[in-house]
Design a protein that fits this description.
four-stranded antiparallel beta sheet; phosphoprotein; single chain; 319 residues; Neuraminidase; mainly beta; Strictosidine_synth_cons-reg; glycoprotein; SMP-30/gluconolactonase/LRE family protein; 27 strands; globular; 6-blade_b-propeller_TolB-like; five-stranded mixed beta sheet
Length: 319
């Protein structure tokens, strides 16, 4: 991997609410996000902090995480408490698409991607730890993450993959032949093939210099942007080799202690061969725990699980 370039901050836009965990742009250059109090917000004029403003589109009644904007303008929302939702961005109506899998409550729904035929693929990060104890799953390394599929006609979600180490962001290949999935606990991306002789198989796609969170594809010909919530933590890699009992004890301690995110902010972008085309970092960053990234105009927009706003950074030159 090439030496990282500098992630250049331009300004910060406060949202008046904490935790814009995912950020996605709409065709008009506005950015949609969900915050900790359950609201879905649309942010206007992010390029100028003096004129930036937010409007409330909906209230999910839960905790929205990953977002996927559909061609008709509706929004698919992964809600950590309510499951997979569809939000009408015109009138704020919230409809539950799925809230259980095989008789088990669907919780910690994390990220989703929609294919042109209307199929939805989405992830569950953990079946053992809820969102407010996410650090426990990372420390314990439970491997209870899932990839699921909801057909266009709806119904019961189908489990495609299990045993994932904190399944997180999703993006589709430009040609629709595979999905890219972020495995946060393994610091890597996974390719899940949708077509061809290996359809239904998963394989490593890219090793990363940190823990990936949400993914976002920059148009059909653009790269997949990856938010790095944290750099790699070597002691954590060692702990993951310990016995399950040791990891469980460490997880119990971790959820009781205050978590302070790393001061290094980072994002990468990869192409459909798994090659890194951008790697941007900033040490001693005031904006911590980057959980999402998207582009709009000449800017990169960063979201975070913990910050009360979004960061606007310079977009790197094309490579």
């Amino acid at each position: 991997m090439d030496r990282p370039a500098e992630l250049v901050p331009l300004h910060y836009v406060s949202l008046g609410a904490r935790g814009p965990e995912d950020v996605v742009p709409d065709p008009h250059g506005r950015v949609l996000t969900g915050v900790a109090d359950g609201r879905i917000l649309r942010v206007h004029h992010l390029g100028d902090p003096r004129t930036a403003r937010t409007e409330v589109l909906a209230r999910t009644g839960g905790r929205p995480l990953g977002l996927e904007l559909l061609p008709d303008g509706d929004l698919v929302v992964c809600d950590a408490e309510r499951g997979l939702l569809r939000v009408d961005t015109d009138n704020g109506t919230v409809r539950v698409l799925a809230d259980s899998v095989a008789g088990e409550r669907l919780r910690f729904c994390s990220n989703a991607v929609a294919l042109p035929d209307g199929t939805l693929y989405f992830t569950v990060s953990s079946r053992r730890h809820p969102l407010d104890r996410w650090i426990g799953d990372i420390v314990e390394n439970t491997g209870t993450g899932r990839l699921l599929r909801l057909p266009p006609e709806g119904g019961e979600p189908e489990v495609l993959l299990e045993g994932l180490r904190f399944a997180n962001g999703l993006a589709a290949a430009a040609d629709g032949s595979f999905l890219v999935l972020a495995e946060t606990g393994a610091c890597r991306l996974v390719r899940y093939r949708l077509t061809g002789p290996r359809a239904g198989h998963a394989e490593p796609f890219a090793d990363l210099p940190g823990m990936p969170d949400n993914l976002w594809r920059e148009g059909p010909g653009g790269p997949v942007w990856v938010a790095l919530a944290s750099p790699r933590v070597p002691p954590l890699d060692l702990l993951h080799r310990a016995s399950p009992a040791v990891r469980r004890a460490a997880a119990r301690a971790a959820v009781r202690l205050p978590y302070r995110p790393s001061g290094t902010a980072g994002v990468v972008a990869v192409d459909d061969e798994g090659r890194v085309v951008h790697h941007l970092t900033r040490r001693r960053s005031g904006f911590r725990m980057v959980t999402s990234v998207c582009t709009t105009g000449d800017h990169l927009v960063l979201g975070s699980l913990g910050e009360p706003g979004v960061a606007v950074c310079a977009r790197p030159a094309a490579r």
